DNA sequence: CACACATATTCGTTTTTGCTAATATGATAG
DNA sequence: CTATCATATTAGCAAAAACGAATATGTGTG
């Protein structure tokens, strides 16, 4: 049994709960990339990506490493990588149920 | 390697990314509970809890079961339970780094 | 030092989320 | 069938998140 600060946990999970951020994580899952590479891979503005990278970093999901004028971002560690995989596995399981939900997009309280 | 619809995944994770919803999950982790029980356990209004339960249900994290005039909520399945545990384990690992983050609360873009 | 390139930050706006209070639905008991 | 208890839904408002555009910082190069 592990004890975790709830606020910390929520912040961490917040990092995962956005489409663009998820794509970024997927994008750098296998190897570190510079911001420009990520911007190219994704279809978003440099400013937007930079903001999400900042969020992901603050949430503890990724780390940045400077090398010359580039900054390379990658997943924080192997555990984060494992967690992302596990989430995918669990989700494959419950996917159908979730997909049939309606309230999420319109309903303002979710 | 598992393929998952990104929107589905984000929706699922969205369910986890709120303090109250996390507390609800924790609260019903070991056994199913009625809404009233949950409301009593947590410090929030019935309406508020009901809305979060609705969200959690839509996100695929919990299921409800009617019995008489009560509705019992519980985690969807063992995998969800396992996932919550795994998240705690990974978090224990990166907790300190995350805790030292400043931008999250004030910064509007994260 | 000035210029170019890579990345971060700020500002203003729009959209989404969360909350409370009030009301509605639904089930059971009498 | 109506009164009561359990739960859900709606409406309106306040707060937070997301975004684009513009600007700032920082790093290497000539």
TrEMBL record, chains A, B:
Q: Which GO terms describe its molecular function?
A: DNA binding; DNA-binding transcription factor activity
Q: Where is the HTH arsR-type domain?
A: 1-95
* InterPro entries on file: ArsR-like_HTH (IPR011991), HTH_ArsR_DNA-bd_dom (IPR001845), HTH_MetalResp_TranReg (IPR051081), WH-like_DNA-bd_sf (IPR036388), WH_DNA-bd_sf (IPR036390)
Q: Which CDD domains match?
A: HTH_ARSR
Q: Give the transmembrane ranges.
A: none
List the Pfam families.
Answer: HTH_5 (PF01022)
Supply the alphabetized keyword list.
Answer: DNA-binding, Transcription, Transcription regulation
State the PROSITE patterns in the record: HTH_ARSR_2 (PS50987)
Q: What is this protein called?
A: Winged helix-turn-helix transcriptional regulator
